[in-house]
Amino acid sequence: MRLVGGIWRRTPLAVADLGGLRPTPERVRETVFDWLSHLFGTFEGRAALDLFAGSGALGLEAVSRGMAELDAVERDKLQARNILQTVSKLSAGDVVRVHGEDAFGFLSRTTESYDVIFIDPPFALNLQDEAIRKALPRLKAEGILYVERTGARTTEALLNELGLVRLRSTSAGQVDCELLARKASLMAGLAREEKPPKRNMRRERNKEQRE
């Protein structure tokens, strides 16, 4: 497990043997940060929040690529300590703050606002929707939410309820990820129209003939 881009490229990350801990794959991170670079133009002066930080891969990748500030939140003491050790090794303590606490507890007390909020809880806990709701007040007007799930995306009903639009989405193996922004933001104008699933025309013609 390592960082894949920026000034700390190839830096290894310690991953504790914990149930449910599933670091975001390197190829997914590469795609996501290509998207973010295109949408933001630059990470200079921007702040990120990595909820459910786990290995710290998403947040540290952001800082490696130029993000100015990072709050990484991880309630597991061992994994939070691993992130702190990596931060110390990289001499990044002036940029990265590690919080060994529950993600929702952190959101309830912080007054900071962020350009990017990474939401990637253990899939089995199914906390994504709750995290989107509670993180949204801490997102800047032109900010972006990154959400990772398996086998699904954020429903259109929830997007409409919260006034969000999907900017980008992709799938890789068991990972489904997306970038969300406020519908009222300028960022929403950069949403890429998603192609409908490909239809198997031969199968449909055969079905019609049988009927």
From TrEMBL:
Keywords: Methyltransferase, Transferase. Residues 191-211 have a biased composition (Basic and acidic residues). Residues 190-211 are annotated as: Disordered. InterPro entries: DNA_methylase_N6_adenine_CS, RNA_MeTrfase_RsmD, SAM-dependent_MTases_sf. It comes from Sutterella seckii. GO terms for molecular function: methyltransferase activity; nucleic acid binding. It comes from the Bacteria. The keyword Transferase applies. One of its GO terms (biological process) is rRNA methylation. This is Methyltransferase. Pfam families: Cons_hypoth95.
